[in-house]
Design brief:
The chain is of the alpha/beta class and 491 residues long. The strands form 2 sheets. The chain has an 8-stranded mixed β-sheet with strand order 9-8-7-10-11-12-13-14, sandwiched between helices. The longest helix is centred in the C-terminal third of the chain and has 21 residues. The radius of gyration is 23 Å and the shape is globular. The chain binds zinc ion. The site of zinc ion has 9 residues, from helix 12.
Length: 491
């Protein structure tokens, strides 16, 4: 049995959400698990059963080194290939009994170990420990995909938080109040631009690709897949490191147009034509820029310390636009101050600022000083001799290379490493919201959906209305932006 070679990234994600685990404790805990994933014969012949089982494997193989698959033999064969494409060293015939299991679809089960059952309908996921749950006949993949994520969240809490598998019975609505639309032609015709094809975008593209008739999609992202991305990018295989993120996503959506560029490059190439944007970039600035390009509707997906979620925005009316949610609420410490303090050299802030700006390697005297202040062995610091101060901060402190993981103090949003099921769930909720909005053209009030899957989920508290910025500072309260939007869409 072997953990994937991108295990350390996964360990960082675990350590960020659970206090008291170091890398070897995480390794030991993962290596003690034999995870069972089963799909009943009946479920394996439905879209929902098929996609739930597939996503379970896409999530599990990134984290757990030993997985036992059970179901119709052709399905087990293809799921085994999928698992090995994600972690070539995954153990699929582990010795010993499974220690915890996920089971998709109804049917008789004789499990003796803790088991979580996944069922679904078009837009609702069901997870329960009580009894097998059945999957529906709808060809929409959203409820089933969310069910896979919630099951993996329950497994995670069971493995790392010593929480009993206690989901008595949760019915999770992927879209607030969402009923499956009777007609979906307008969703199929929608032109949807994905701004950012990172971890959340991967979950969204995966879900969209499972629709019987996926809409036309533009995929926009300047980056290539790095090894550390494998930890939570559900579309990515181990052999795709170094390939553009948009190309990896195009494998799932062959008709997509791809733009290996940032939003500005995309707008320069095609103009401001997009009516619907799915935004999952990792900065507030990027989100505000997406809103400022005045799509008719923006749907936003995120993961952050504490929660994950989705919000959908028009531009006129009372509801918050996307930029309203990301306006600075207070003066936050500057980046150079945060870095200088975290590295133990607050008096070097001007020097740190220059290094952040130039991207030059950290000079040897400063590297030595940082090592002394943080009490770190010189040998651990030396690999950073030719690295930038940003790399030292991200990989050394927050990535666990020089300071033990979890010891770097308060996390900044930009170094937050989500768990695979968190990113995937945000992506599926993002895709589902886009699909329903495109199918129904109902762009009413701004509804923000948030969920924290580190606790048992309570759907009653997921959704909130959001109003425009109360200070009147946002672009959606600016007369020039308002008239440009109104002219663009004839409102
Ligand atoms: Zn606004």
């Amino acid at each position: 049995m072997a953990l994937p070679d991108y295990f350390q990234r996964g360990a960082v994600a675990v350590a960020q959400v659970i206090a008291g685990f170091d890398e070897s404790a995480i390794r030991n805990r993962l290596e003690s698990v034999v995870l069972g994933i089963s799909v009943s014969t009946a479920a394996a012949h439905t879209v929902q059963g098929t996609v739930a089982a597939e996503l379970l494997v896409r999530l599990a193989a990134r984290m757990y080194p030993a997985i036992k698959l059970d179901g119709p033999s052709d399905r087990v064969a293809s799921l085994s290939d999928l698992a090995r494409s994600i972690n070539p060293d995954v153990e699929l015939s582990p010795e010993g009994a499974t220690t915890v299991s996920v089971s998709v679809g109804g049917g008789r089960h004789t499990a003796t170990q803790p088991t979580i059952y996944v069922g679904s309908s078009a837009l609702t996921a069901r997870v329960t420990t009580k009894a097998p749950a059945s999957v529906g006949r709808s060809v929409l993949p959203f409820g089933a995909g969310a069910g896979a994520c919630l099951a993996m969240a329950a497994i995670f809490r069971h493995v790392f938080m010593d929480a009993p598998l206690s989901e008595s019975e949760v019915d999770f609505p992927v879209v607030p109040g969402g009923r499956p639309p009777e007609r979906t032609q307008s969703a199929t015709r929608a032109n949807l631009a994905f701004v950012g094809v990172g971890a959340v975008g991967n979950g969204a593209v995966w879900a969209i690709s499972k629709l019987p008739e996926p809409p036309l999609v533009d995929l926009i992202d300047p980056e290539v897949i790095e090894l550390s991305n494998l930890q939570r990018y559900v579309l990515a295989r181990r052999d795709q490191v170094g390939i553009a993120k948009v190309e990896v996503a195009r494998e799932a959506l062959p008709d997509a147009r791809v733009f290996q560029s940032d939003l500005t490059g995309y707008l320069n190439a095609v103009g401001f034509i997009h009516e619907m944007m799915a935004v999952s970039v990792d900065s507030a600035r990027g989100r505000v820029a997406a809103q400022a390009s005045l799509p008719k509707v923006v749907v936003n997906g995120w993961t952050q310390p504490g929660d994950l979620g989705v919000s959908a925005h028009s531009f006129l009316g009372d509801g918050a636009c996307l930029a309203c949610l990301y306006l600075p609420k207070s003066v936050s410490p500057s980046e150079d101050a945060v870095y200088a303090r975290a590295l133990g050299v607050p008096e070097q802030q001007p020097h740190v600022r220059n290094l952040l700006y130039s991207g030059q390697p950290v000079p040897a005297p400063l590297l030595t000083l940082i090592g002394q202040r943080l009490g770190i062995d010189e040998a651990l610091m030396s690999p950073f001799a030719d690295k930038s101060i940003r790399e030292l901060y991200r990989e050394g402190l927050c990535g666990g290379a020089v300071l033990p993981i979890g010891a770097a103090g308060t996390l900044r949003q930009d170094v937050h490493v989500p768990l695979p099921h968190q990113s995937a769930l945000a992506g599926i909720m993002l895709a589902a919201r886009c699909f329903i909005l495109a199918a129904t053209s109902a762009h009413g009030r701004t509804v923000v959906s948030r969920v924290d899957v580190l606790k048992p989920v309570n759907p009653a508290f997921m959704n909130q209305l959001a109003l425009k910025d109360s200070r009147g500072l946002c672009i959606c309260q600016d007369s020039e932006f308002i008239s440009a939007y109104a002219a663009k869409y004839g409102q």
